[in-house]
């Protein structure tokens, strides 16, 4: 951002959308990037920009996957999370007591038997000290349910529900592809679906980020081709790409938690997750 005055700071140095200025300049044109470790194992990065009107070139790094401390950058430790199909309003305290930090909750088609994330639930989770990740899932287990028009319709519904839940802009909604999609599935109908989702988000000017939940192959292709910028690797270890896809932001199936009143696992009430710092969770909903 040449010509910008002032100092830029972040504690989320792994956020690929914000980027990190690693070639900053001070008023004299000298490079100046300062870092300091914080107690929560994140880094504060201070980059001084050139004076307004300068043409000095700065480098925006789009992907941060650095953990070597010699680079003066570090990825924050992952958090333990869980995702649940049921309303967690009354379970917020029990979830927090289990040492989970992040709760994944769903937006769904209005006719679903499951309750979608609401403002009241998001506020209850926030009050309990929990952060939230949002997912969209509706008839996501068969290729015939994926098309551009499906993406537009479902993206529109997801955005409207996210706005009502007070999900802040700039955070992702993860859209589920809940089957072992073939390469042609992913590059064809699924790619079209995610184009439809993006079209809906852009049309509504909501500012949400597109994420994907699915197999390693699905996540890898959409990430590489711009269909999604956040990835949630499903705990389906026989699906294509599970063992080789390492660029996930959330990985399902971390460790089962002891949450009072809830049973873990695919046939239970929730799945556990490992959640990276740049997964896009939000909190502070009141």
UniProtKB/TrEMBL annotation:
**Pfam families given in the database record:** Rv2525c_GlyHyd-like (PF08924)
Domain Rv2525c-like glycoside hydrolase-like stretches:
94-250
InterPro entries, alphabetically? GH, Rv2525c-like_Glyco_Hydro-like
Q: What highest taxon heads this organism's lineage?
A: Bacteria
Which SUPFAM superfamilies does the entry mention?
(Trans)glycosidases
Protein name in UniProt? Uncharacterized protein DUF1906
Organism of derivation:
Sphingomonas aurantiaca
